[in-house]
């Protein structure tokens, strides 16, 4: 193989890699903008989630306006039941959380315990913020 042919082959590989990089970048951008950002809406209210679900279902089965309203009513009822179930078990989760923290706290030195308490306080604030944002 002479030098010119080797240079052409090297340039061809460089062009192929460059084109594949562009294609991958375009594909990645498409996926992020259509999938990730589409679901990254800041409005996670139950009404918005139901509307999104009904819209997707409508595209699949072509619902009438009356069916859409009826399905929204069914979904709202199911969501209310989910919320009631969630509220009934929240005290059990809270108790398990507190029991686990108490057990961990016993394993720590007196110097570590205030740091652990601060750490738990931050986690609690983050959890409450997530719960507040998902409730809207």
Structure description:
This protein has 2 domains: 40 residues; 95 residues, no CATH class. Helix 2 crosses helix 3. With 136 residues, it is mainly alpha-helical. It has 4 helices and no strands. The model has no long low-confidence stretch (mean pLDDT 87).
How are the SSEs placed, and which strands pair?
Elements: H1 3-39, H2 46-61, H3 65-107, H4 112-135
- How many structural domains can be distinguished in the coordinates? 2
Taken in chain order, the helices and strands follow as HHHH
For the biggest sheet, the summary is: none
Q: Unreliable runs, pLDDT <50, ≥5 residues?
A: none
Instruction: Tally the helices.
Output: 4
Q: How many β-strands, per DSSP?
A: 0
Helical content, roughly? Answer: over 70%
Find the structural class using helix and strand composition: mainly alpha
Our measurement of the CA-to-CA distance between the termini, rounded to an integer number of angstroms, reads: 68 Å
- How much of the sequence lies in strands comes to under 5%
Averaging pLDDT over every residue, what do you get?
87
**Outline:** flat
Radius of gyration: 27 Å
């Amino acid at each position: 193989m002479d030098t010119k042919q080797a240079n052409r082959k090297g340039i061809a590989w460089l062009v192929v890699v460059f084109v594949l990089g562009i294609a991958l970048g375009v594909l990645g951008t498409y996926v992020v903008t259509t999938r990730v950002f589409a679901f990254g809406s800041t409005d996670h209210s139950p009404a918005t989630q139901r509307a999104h679900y009904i819209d997707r279902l409508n595209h699949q089965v072509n619902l009438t306006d009356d069916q859409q309203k009826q399905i929204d009513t069914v979904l709202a009822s199911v969501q209310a039941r989910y919320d009631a179930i969630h509220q009934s078990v929240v005290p059990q989760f809270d108790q398990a959380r507190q029991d686990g923290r108490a057990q961990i706290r016993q394993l720590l030195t007196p110097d570590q315990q205030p740091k652990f308490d601060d750490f738990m306080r931050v986690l609690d604030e983050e959890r409450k913020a997530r719960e507040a944002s998902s409730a809207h």
